[in-house]
Give the backbone structure.
Amino acid sequence: MINDEAIPGRYPRVMYKEVKWQDEYGAEGWSRTEATGWQDAEVVSSEIGGGMHSPVLDIDVSAYLVPSSTPGHSHLYIDYPMSWRQYKRLLKALAKSGLVEPGYVKASIRRKHTAVRVPWLKK
């Protein structure tokens, strides 16, 4: 079943009830029932239908999503220190997946940091 607006986002996500996990990440012992409505759901999936997915991630650090001045766009602040080498790998993967523009990544790598406008400054 679809999320019936209970979960924010542009795409309706499939939800499931009675999901059983054996451990945090192992597939062994994993099961799920049929999709359900949001009233009975226990988990929200990345599935949006037609074999497509819209990312749903369990981020294990503090993160903040701030709308940008461009409608439908946002700035994500993640409180997780990493080396520049690690960060470049993350940026390249995000560009390859289409989540961020390749030009943004290329310019960021050139200047050795990413940057976004402050929330109170409009384009």
